[in-house]
């Protein structure tokens, strides 16, 4: 079953943790980092947890477990090795319409805790839906080495100047292109070098000169191949992720479309090639990057092959990204 990704603001909110061992320690540490008000129930507690209780960082609930404790909690985390108790507690939480995570038991849990890459305020979460937590952790380890440590500081700059960005760049497409220019420009390199003040000055200068960002009218005609996302070209993926508008042929496979930019405007492509070409021209003339998606090698086959040439008189560029033709494309010759 697919999970709905959710980042919870737990600052100052009560979370109930049941269990006092190493696993509970890791869960409590993450919750305290998020600013949660942790209440802990356990007959025995890890020495580090005991120290945090003595320091007033969390509250310990004494005596036998009281299901009413769940009522005051936004979330409940269960980290005991008693399967029958865990199941009963999960049932109590469900009856009270409260989310509960039973560590290492996806079937009993109503929320999962993902593997997290922290570049505060930027966070990336990876979940296997409880099916393969070690796989999620391995992916996190790989991404940790690939993601620039300075991305958090860059996200902080965007956050501090959010109001000014929206005021200076009210048009969404122009704002996207400005963001791309900042991300690909000198600001990140300055942050990486530890030159925070210089990075902020460069960021503000780019915001002051935001009108110089090109209007960005552009057309990309993308053949999406046989419907296998793994057979899309890198150029096609980049176009799909930079789109302001997606014109989507009804035969484009859902797994392919799932890779396109989520906040791009999506329109059904007209059946008539000339009508769709006119729609492409309308969007690009308005300064938008419009991406037209068709299955197979959609724009090198009749009757769509002449469209790029027909759009060649425009001031903005029109590019064709070839796709693999035919439903059997990519099949092994030994299949």
UniProtKB/TrEMBL annotation:
It catalyses: precorrin-2 + NAD(+) = sirohydrochlorin + NADH + 2 H(+). It is an enzyme of class 1 (oxidoreductase). InterPro entries: 4pyrrol_Mease (IPR000878), 4pyrrol_Methylase_sf (IPR035996), 4pyrrole_Mease_sub1 (IPR014777), Met8-like (IPR028161), NAD(P)-bd_dom_sf (IPR036291), Sirohaem_synt_dimer_dom_sf (IPR037115), Sirohaem_synthase_central (IPR028281), Sirohaem_synthase_dimer_dom (IPR019478). Residues 150-207 form the Sirohaem synthase dimerisation domain. Pathway: Porphyrin-containing compound metabolism; siroheme biosynthesis; sirohydrochlorin from precorrin-2: step 1/1. Its EC number is 1.3.1.76. SUPFAM superfamilies: NAD(P)-binding Rossmann-fold domains, Siroheme synthase middle domains-like, Tetrapyrrole methylase. Residues 221-329 form the Tetrapyrrole methylase domain. Keywords: NAD, Oxidoreductase, Porphyrin biosynthesis. Residues 121-144 form the Siroheme synthase central domain. NCBIfam families: cysG_Nterm. This is precorrin-2 dehydrogenase. It comes from Luteimonas rhizosphaericola.
